[in-house]
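User: Let's play a game. I give you a shape written as tokens, and you guess the letters that built it. Ready? Here's round one.
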């Protein structure tokens, strides 16, 4: 399922116009993105949680040339599935 499928499904189930459904889906994703940018944790009961993990920089090696390179620190989003979602998938 992609974003447009989600918009169509929301429109169908709620009988909202497609434009309004798209605004709602955009608002949810934008709000979630902004929360993760602030390093806030997002928890959706029965579905899962989103967190931002921080990784320190390190000295790595280019596997092709063997040259040492510096890998900068970074922050990446991480999703952990909730118990109910795991159980529903494994029925």
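Assistant: Ready! My guess for every position:
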């Amino acid at each position: 399922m992609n974003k447009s499928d989600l918009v169509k499904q929301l429109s169908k189930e709620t009988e909202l116009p497609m434009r309004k459904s798209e605004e709602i889906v955009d608002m949810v994703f934008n709000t979630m993105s902004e929360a993760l940018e602030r390093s806030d944790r997002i928890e959706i009961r029965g579905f899962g949680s989103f967190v931002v993990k921080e990784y320190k920089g390190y000295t790595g090696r280019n596997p092709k040339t063997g040259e040492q390179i510096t890998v900068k620190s970074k922050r990446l989003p991480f999703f952990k599935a909730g118990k109910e979602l795991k159980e529903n998938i494994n029925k």
